[in-house]
Amino acid sequence: MALSRSARRSSRLLALATAVAAGFTIAAAPAATPGAPGIGDPYFPDLGNGGFHALHYDLGVSYHPDSGRLDGRTTLTARATQNLSSFDLDLQKLTVDSIRVNDRPADFTRTGDEIVITPRHWLRKGERFEVTVVYGGVPKPLNGPIVFGSDYGWMKTKDGVFVACEPNAASTWFPSSDHPSDKATYDIRIDAPKGLTGVSNGLLVNSYDSGGRSYFHWRETKPMATYLATATIGKFDVKTGRTPGGTPIYVAIDPVLAHQNTVDVYAVTAEATDYWSKLFGPYPFEETGAVVDDMPEAGFSLETQTKPSYSAVRSESTIVHELAHQWFGDSVSVRQWKDIWLNEGFATYAQWLWAEHRGTETAHDSFRAAYNARPAASDFWKIEVADPQRDTMFSSAVYQRGAMMLQALRERIGDQAFFKLLPAWTKLHRYGNADTADFVKLAEHVSGRPLGDLFQKWIYNTGKPAL
Ligand SMILES: [Zn+2]
Fold first, then answer.
1. Architecture (CATH level 2) of domain 337-460
2. Residue 345 Cα, ligand 1 centroid: separation in angstroms?
3. Most buried residue, 8, 308, 405, 427, by CB count within 10 Å?
4. CATH top-level class for 32-234?
């Protein structure tokens, strides 16, 4: 993100009870119990869910711009990680019409932003199961201090909707295990009034018009965090092709922005995708691109997987930031939200690398400028970058001091080790999750040097460090 500026039958339980009654001692499977309502993130205790792992989402999103209504149908394929008597999905506000588990009606209740689902038959540990939720309503954006004071999530535009959900707004538009540590693949099917375009992640499988509506089927075959899913809808001019390096590219721009040609989004996206592929390792996804919408009230852009979302025509520096996130954040994702500097510090550092690549400023000078611009008394130095707390997780320290950490590391271990470390990191944790300790460990391994003091100084300590 960047600021601009087979179900076991209950008869088995009966058999067990009968056996116990008959006096047998049985090494029985543990009883089925409810899955935890959260995945264990201290910043968002209710987000994500326990007792299963998400494998694949099939999202159906039917949008009606006049009323703002979304009619949704989500089928989640998941694997139970314990014997489950019930489990939760996250869904904020919208109304649930029905739920089926393994194609049988399931009971459910709502508690806050949780749907508590009780399948007809309990689910065995290791079992793969499907849950289908039919739901609907008018999704509302979230707001508050977390995302620069801006609204975020499902945001109505003049001609449709702009969808950018970091960190916790995916569950405002589809029921999910809404946490980056529970990644899954996706099919996303969008329909809207004829003439509008639905843009989402991955590759466009097909699109067609029928009965006064336009239909779009997108498929993301690589694991994706919920917050990186999008379904932006509106009038768009679409340009497709391949980057010079051969990666397919899809760029959608709201036609009302056509006169704003301060930056060639298509060309910069292509060039930066190819350049980052040389520095960070092979591009991790099947397509690159952008969706540029007319939603200036959203004061941010987001690295939605394969196609960053820009709420206006943003700068070249913002574009290269969001594309760097395809490696740092999207392919290698945080384990908990406190690890957010692994996304934002790296994407900010990528902006410094881009300036170095362009010959405008070395990363060393960018580092010095960022360091010198902030006096020791500045609140900037009061944030612990490695654990910035929920409401300040996107504070400038996470971005800028995170980037300073990386330049300090580069100057300690040298260019050769540093530019070996970056692709080693994206390879080791490709499509997975990692935390700060994992990065320190790899940096020490690649450089062959102890580095604990350096990480302590730049991301664990507060206060302005001496150079
Ligand atoms: Zn960012």
1. Orthogonal Bundle (1.10)
2. 8
3. 308
4. mainly beta
| Domain residue spans of the chain | 32-234, 337-460
C-alpha 303 – ligand 1 centre gap (Å): 7
Secondary structure, 3-state, the chain: CEECCCCCCCHHHHHHHHHHHCCCCCCCCCCCEECCCCCCCCCCCCCCCCCEEEEEEEEEEEEECCCCEEEEEEEEEEEECCCEEEEEEECCCCEEEEEEECCEECEEEEECCEEEEECCCCECCCCEEEEEEEEEECCCCECCCCCCCCCEEEEECCCCEEEECCCCCHHHCCCECCCCCCCEEEEEEEEEECCCEEECCCEEEEEEEECCEEEEEEEEEEEECHHHCCCEEECCEEEEEECCCCCEEEEEECHHHCCCCCCCHHHHHHHHHHHHHHHHCCCCCCCEEEEECCCCCCCEEECCCCCCEECCCCCHHHHHHHHHCCCECCCEEECCHHHCHHHHHHHHHHHHHHHHHHCCCCHHHHHHHHHHCCCCCCHHHHCCCCCCCHHHCCCHHHHHHHHHHHHHHHHHHHHHHHHHHHHHHHHHCCCCEECHHHHHHHHHHHHCCCCHHHHHHHHHCCCCCCC
Ligand 1 centroid to Cα of residue 9, in Å, is: 47
pLDDT digits (tens, 9 = 90+) for 203-222: 999 999 999 999 999 999 99
**Reported pTM:** 0.94
- The CA 322 to ligand 1 mean position distance, Å, reads 6
pLDDT tens digits along 373-388: 999 999 999 999 999 9
Separation of CA 288 and ligand 1 centre (Å): 16
* Cα of 320 from ligand 1 centre, angstroms: 10
